[in-house]
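notes to self, project folder thing:

trying the whole complex as one job this time. last attempt i did each chain seperately and stitching them together was a nightmare. two parts in total, labels are on each line so i dont mix them up again. if this works i'll redo the older ones the same way
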Amino acid sequence: MDKLMDTVVLMLQGSEVTLEIFCVTLVLALPLGILAALGRLSKLRVLSRFMEFYIWLMRGTPLMLQLLFVYFALPMIGIMLPDMAAALLAFTLNYAAYFAEIFRAGIQSVPRGQYEAAKTLGMTYPQTMRRIILPQVIRMVLPPVSNETINLVKDTSLIYILAMNDLLRVARTIVQREFDMTPFVVAAVFYLAMTAVLTWGFKKLEAHYGKYAR
Amino acid sequence: MANTQDNVMIRMEDIHKSYGDVEVLKGIDIEVHRGEVLAIIGPSGSGKSTLLRCINRLEDITSGLVEIEGGTLASTKGDGTVEYAKEEDSRKLLGCMGMVFQQFNLFPHMTVLENLLEAPVHVKKRAKEAVLPEAMALLKKVGLEDRADYYPAQLSGGQQQRVAIARALCMKPDIMLFDEPTSALDPELTGEVLRTMRELAAEHMTMVVVTHEMNFAREAASHVIFMADGVIVEQGEPQEFFAHPKEERTRAFLNNML
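result (full assembly):
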């Protein structure tokens, strides 16, 4: 029993790294994703093309490769990042690209009449975006964003490759040392608990933002 | 506003509008005076909605002149290109016009009252407390004061359109533009919207109405324009226009409508 407690305590420490990556990535990647989507939809061709390229690059290569690149290749050109910062950079850039496409779809699904109504009421573009378009976009993108967010919980396990002690790596270390499979089960329970909280949270958000829809 | 002695609220001269190679407006002239209700009728694809949308710059003209209350919104320069008023002037000119759309275009994530308050509070930067009684008075006027806290999706089409009218009026426009305001409504709901519009007309609001409602054009308009294929075919006082249409094209259209 004590052994199980020790395992759980160690894994809670591992969860801290997992949660840190998860939270910071989400907080940075969501607004970046909105900006990238606006850039992608911009009438400025240069900007739109650049965003298209960025999204293609991020979605077209494995996240694992991006992590390795930031961690091992950037130092060769003199950019040396601490473990955590390197991981966060890769995760944020990667997830912002996926979020950008989700937000783009959301923005494009708002009827043109909403922009026209805002325009005839004298609203500027930033006002229209902030007060009219984005609140409607949020409601529409909640299900796909929820999907990506749950993916992110599990993708955090990729940082084992940077030798960071996240939940899964801690579990694996114990399994290899003790020759006992319990930590894997505990890890699964931890991940399931996190996704359960997220699922519940998104359900609440959907109810909140959906209250105006019939 | 600027020069309104002659009371010309909208003046459009030789308006042309093309999408690529397709010319949808082929030289239109209109003049709307203060308190006038101009009804624009015509078959689908005649360019009447496009013309209306050129007044408040939802569409840019290809050439011609647009003046709002004596201020120049758009003019054609010597080299044939169109020059629009600078951002600030343009904002001022467009600000004297409100618009009502065929699809209502209410903001679905806001309640009826929030829809009305949005622009006065966030565009004109007026205090919410000051706008609130005006907004409630307008809702009362359109018969929906008991729906202030409803969301648009909870209202019928006719109710939504009346809210849309109140929302536009809440910005205290001098001119109201209506783009087929009853075309998306069940016949039984058009009446309530037309009633609101008739009341506005009776209060001498300057209105430009693109419509398929011949009765409204006949009874509430002070001037009727019939458009087809991007030109004005015929125009006049509604009594004379409907009783004795001169052009063959007009007669064919009216026969189909009635």
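what i see at first glance: Chain A has a mean pLDDT of 92.
need to look closer tmrw
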